[in-house]
Specification:
With 323 residues, this protein is α/β, with parallel strands linked by helices. The protein has 13 helices and seven strands. The structure holds iron/sulfur cluster.
Length: 323
């Protein structure tokens, strides 16, 4: 307890109750201190905020535009329209409304413009092919590509995402379960990729639990419609999310200890320096001769497949686990 006002929020890992006003102050200070402590931005940065229209990304946009003057940065939003009917249009509307209130520019890139088909169309094809890859895998790969491309086209020097503590711990557990060490090494608060074509990514909400972000949006009236992506049922994260939340309920602070384990692992496992390699088709960084974006595009689009095969010979989809 900090003051005598009615408490609104219980912060379990602090073992303390806070009123709405003190919670907002605590929340904003933590995000600001995270940005400063980890040097997520430098004066003069042009920060593109990757906004999906969900609570985390809207909060990131809201706070970075609030801090922009103090930090000496310019902030704008970038969004991706995957083409998910009954979902994306509502989230984009919420995003445009908030951006108008904040007076920040929003730039939107769509799957249709970049790849020639929507996610809905892609999912239809994935189903015809037996759903060997799930919609979220395709969506995640394409979304990262478009987000980076739009940010780069608007001269962003940083790309801020809304990943919070819960996202980070869930991804860590998933990577650990799949022995995906590269994934663990890659997922820090700031990306350390060296390619000139990738805008460095930063995560201002890295240390903030999802529940607190939700509480903040409710107190601050940051509105996001309660619509869910129809493909969420295919996401592997669901059961892991439940498990992490259950353990946290029984043992407050569990998520922070998981994050600390991840950071320790990232420090101890030093990835050997690898000369950056690039996709032979599109020229973007890739550990394989063909990047995942081009691979999935070729898998879903005959014309693109022909183009790829002209450049690098027949693609063996089996080799990539797609058949
Ligand atoms: Fe994309 Fe999956 Fe998220 Fe839907 S739930 S927006 S398909 S990543």
């Amino acid at each position: 307890m900090v003051c005598s006002k009615k408490a609104s929020v219980y912060v379990s890992y602090l073992g303390d109750h806070l009123c709405a006003e003190h919670f907002v102050e605590y929340f904003e200070r933590r995000v600001y201190d995270t940005i400063v402590h980890f040097r997520l931005v430098e004066e003069g940065d042009r920060v593109a905020v990757a906004v999906s229209g969900g609570k985390d990304s809207l909060t990131t946009l809201y706070l970075l535009s609030k801090f922009a003057g103090r930090l000496g940065i310019k902030v704008f939003g970038v969004a991706v329209d995957e083409g998910i009917a009954g979902y994306r249009e509502y989230k984009l509307e919420a995003l445009r409304n908030l951006a108008a209130k904040l007076g920040v520019e929003i730039y939107v890139g769509s799957f249709k413009d970049y790849f020639g088909f929507t996610l809905d169309e892609a999912v239809k094809k994935l189903k015809e092919k037996g759903l060997v890859i799930k919609p979220c895998s395709v969506c995640g790969v394409f979304r990262r590509y478009v987000m980076n491309a739009v940010a780069r086209e608007h001269d962003a020097s940083k790309l801020a995402t809304g990943h919070n503590l819960d996202d980070e711990t869930q991804v860590f557990v998933m990577n650990a379960l799949k022995s995906h060490i590269d994934g663990i090494l890659r997922e820090g608060i700031i990306s350390d990729e060296t390619s000139a074509t990738l805008v460095p990514r930063i995560k201002p909400l890295y240390l903030i639990p999802e529940k607190e972000v939700l509480t903040y949006t409710l107190i601050m009236n940051i509105y996001t419609p309660f619509v869910e992506c129809p493909y969420i049922v295919y996401a592997m994260r669901h059961p892991i999310r439940h498990w992490v939340n259950e353990v946290e309920d029984e043992d407050p602070g569990f998520k922070y200890r998981l994050l600390a384990s991840k950071e320790l692992a990232r420090k101890k496992i030093k990835a050997p320096y690898k000369q950056p390699t690039y996709c032979k088709v599109c020229g973007e960084p890739s550990t394989n001769p063909i990047c995942k974006t081009c691979l999935y595009r070729a898998y879903l689009d005959e014309k693109y497949k022909e183009l790829v095969e002209e450049k690098m010979g027949k693609i063996n989809f089996k080799r990539y686990g797609l058949e």
